[in-house]
Amino acid sequence: MHIMENTLHSEPALMWTINDFPAYGNLSGCVVKGYKACPICGDDTPSHRLKNGHKICYIGHRKWLPINHPYRRQRAAFNGKPEYGIPPEPLTGEEVLHMVENGDRVCWKKKSIFFDLEYWKYLPVRHALDVMHIEKNVCDSIIGTLLEIPGKNKDGIAARLDLLNMGVKTDLQPEYGERRTRLPPGPWNLSRAEKREVCNSFYGMKVPEGYSSNIKNLVSLQDSRLLGLKSHDCHTLMQQLLPVAIRSVLEKPARYMKVLKGYVQNRTRPEGCIAERYIAEEAGCTVSVVDQDLLNQAHLYVLENTEEVLPYIEQHMIHIKTAYPKFRKRTKWLQDKHNSTFIQWLRFKVQSELEEDNHSVSENLRWLAAGPNMAVPLYRSYLIKGIKFNIKAQDDVRTTQNSGVYLLAHTMQVASAKDKNPILSNMGFYGVIQEIWDLDYQKFTIPVFREYNDVIDDEVLGDVIIECEPFTRGMPNVDTFDELVGELGGQNIRGGCEDIWIE
Ligand SMILES: [Zn+2]
């Protein structure tokens, strides 16, 4: 828009296009079919052809999740493999233009006409996908599979054989009889009664005016189906209504036990630990998103007290000294630099080691390096090895006192990169527990006490974060998630369902 001789001239500008995926291909000129169908991943699109379904599938989507998202390590629920990849950077318009004009066209079928617009190549986002459209396709497939609607059901012999090929849910493979084939009911299969129950839930739902179509009109109770869903109906179904309707018929796993199992710290004596930590929780646990700086401080403390991390600390120190030769003799400066950069450095370091074929990164280190969850369970009371620790606020309303602690904190001195026996020196602390945090590293938790010194004003002393006891040699070796929730990965056949027969 520009102003000229008191006249306002306005010119339209195309900012981006919004379409479904095939149209996205036509307008952007990129390939949206076949093995390299992802416009962002391009040549590196993770894809493979399903032997039995005869379709190309793309199971690389988990790399867009946050690095410590639990889905990344669930094997059985996906393709039998964990995902440690990081998402690729989208190409800029200028990069795309350079590729299509220089014949490097593996993922580009043509130069988009929009590049005729002078400014087009400078737009950071040029094409967008219509999410509602995609959501409707996904919704139709989920409803079609759950209610086994002919033509919409994604389950079947081919799907089961492809699962078998991937080595996941192998107990659901088809069983061939003389005339018919039996499909063992999977976790998504509902009995006739359950399908009716789901449809009844939809039928009985009342929603505010203008919220969605009247759901009642979409339900066919006779044959347990949903009919004529519009994209906006699908949106409300997916986001709000389906989770409610499906809840009553979902298998009820031993949720309670699962929660308790997560508490197991000492795996050699699981029962004892479950009981101990369970009792402690009765005193109250709240989950809170804590200050990032404090969380980093606690995380750094955990890292520095973990034996497996020690070689990385040495490496990092060498790295700093090499990068800043001028400061190599200034111990305090080096320590501060290490403290402020180690967490990030370790995360990338471990990440890149994981990408090597024969890496030796343990499961412990993998999740430790990824860092704790921002949402931290805070306890008022915590039992460790039979000793109860309370926060001060808990003690203030009681007649007993369990919040004062005296701790020997180990400080480590490392002589050289080959030094396997760093010198430990002990320092005594007296403190009062202010908060008890259970740092959540997804696969295990590590309790840390946040304290303040009760004798000297804590403003002067600052916060000291001390773990209850050095655990450098005592950290449990964690199992992979699939091993931990073995019942998910191992047994998939759903009970109480009619058999599925295919003629
Ligand atoms: Zn992609």
From TrEMBL:
Task: Check the record and name the InterPro entries matching this protein.
Answer: DUF4218, Transposase_21
Pfam families, per database record: DUF4218, Transposase_21
DUF4218 domain sequence ranges: 243-288
Q: What is this protein called?
A: DUF4218 domain-containing protein
Organism expressing this protein natively? Prunus dulcis (Almond)
